[in-house]
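Input chain follows. Return C-alpha cells only.
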Amino acid sequence: MLSVHAPSPFAPAPDAFNMASHVLAHAGRLADRPAMQILGATKAERWSYGRLEAAVRGAGTGFLRAGLAPGDRLLLRLGNTPEFPVAYLGAIAVGIVPVPTSAQLTGPEITKMAAQISPAAVVAGEGVALPEGVEKVISEDALRGFAELPPCDYDLGDPDRLAYIIFTSGTSGNPRAVMHAHRAIWARKMMHQGWYGLTPEDRLLHAGAFNWTYTLGTGLMDPWSVGATALIPAPGVEPQTLPLLLRRFDATIFAAAPGVYRQILKHHMNLPLPRLRHGLSAGEALPLATRQHWNAATGAMIYEALGMSECSTFISGAPGHPAPPGTSGWPQEGRQIAVLGEDGAPVERGTPGVLAVHRSDPGLFLGYWGAEAETRARFSADGDWFLTGDMVTMTPTGAIRYEGRGDDMMNAGGFRVSPLEVEAEMALCEGAGEVAAIELRVSAEASVIALAYTGPASPEAMLAHAGAHLARYKQPRICRPVAALPRNRNGKIDRRALRDTWPEETR
C-alpha cells in the first residue's frame, strides 16, 4: 500500500471572510467571560472577551487613522505583553498585514528581515530593537490608547488573500518571510479534535511567549475561536513555577515545547494537577522518557504534533485518537499528505521518504514573500505537493513516524540514520543529560556519528552504552561533553552550529 492519506471532506471557509472576525466570533455573547489571563507569581491580569474585542477593533481604527492601508505590512516589535495579539488581530481586522517577530532580535537582524518585506510602519515596545529605514513607528502606549477609539469594521473578502507574514529559519541560514492567507485560521479547525481535544470550557495554558507562532496559534487564536480561556505566564515566570500556575488557575490543557516539560520534571517528581486533562507538545520531537515521566508525575498524557511554519501542525495524536508508540500521530482529518521518494512518487508504507502536503490544503502557505523561485523549489516537479523536508515513515495503519529533517539525516557506512533514533537511546545512559547526534566529517573521505552531551557521564561510559544498545552502524564514534547544546530561538537543537563549532582536535 502506498504512503498516501486521502482527506475526508472539509468545508471551505465562507466567501466573505476575515481571520480576526472568525477568532472573535464569540466575543459578543461572551463579553464577560475571561478570554485571556496573564499569570504572574502573585497576581493575574484578566482580559474579558469584551475588553479584547474593544482593544482589537480599536487598534484596527487606530492603524487606519495612522495612515496605514489594507495590504500594508506592519512589523510587530513588541515584548511578551497582551498588546502583541491585540496589534496582530487589529491589523488583520482591517486588511493590514502584521508581521510578528521576536523581541530578542538585534538591530542588524531585524533590519535585514525588514528589508525583505518593506514594512509601512512598526509597532514598537519600549527597549525593543528597531529596524533601520522605517520612519513610521507606533509606540506601545499609542497602541493601548487605540482601545478607546470607535470599533473598526471587519474587512471581509476572499479567504485566499494575504492575512499575515511570519519569518522562519531557512536551510541557507537566511530567514524566509512566509505568507499566510485568512483561511489559515479556518484550517486550524482540523486541529481542535485532531490534536487538542479543545472545548469552549477549556482553560489552556501555553508556556511560550506571545510572539512565538506556536503560542499565537495554539495558545491564543484557537482557544478564542471556540470561546475558551487562554492562560499565558507573565514575563519572568520560570518553568519550575508553572505547576503552581497550572493548579492555581485550573488549567485543563497545558501546551509547551519538550524542553519546558523536561525543565519542570527536573524540579518536580510528583505533580498533583486534578483539573489537567492532558498536555500538548510541538516544536521538536518529544522524547519517550519525557512523555513517560510526565505521565507518571501527573497521570496525564502528552499529545504530540508535527508541523512547520508553512502549514502549522497537521500530523498529531489526540485524546480520541492517540498516536501509536514510536510515532508522531496521524494525519488530521481533512489533510491530504503523502510520503514521497526521490522520484517524487509515493513510496510503499514502511519505507522512509519526504513528508509532503498537497497544495490544496487550506492551511498551506501562499508562498515566500518576494521569492517566487524559492517557493517553486519547495514543491514537487508537478507542483502538486509541498515538500516539507521532514523524513518520515508511514506505518501500515497510516500513522507517521518522524525520522528527522532531511538535512539532519546521518550517513553511516551507507546507512541513513536518524539522529533522533540515536539520541533516544543515548539519553537513557546514566549521566547523559541532554544529547545531540550529528554526522561529523573527520577527513576528506570519511565521516562518523558524533554525540554531544551535557551530563557528568564520561565519554567512555557513553561509548560503552552505545556499544551495548545500538547496532554498530548507529553507534557514535565520538562522545564529547559540553556545557550546553546550541539552540535556535525556538529552542530547537542547532545541529549546524554544533557541527561548525566542534573542536578539530576531537575529530
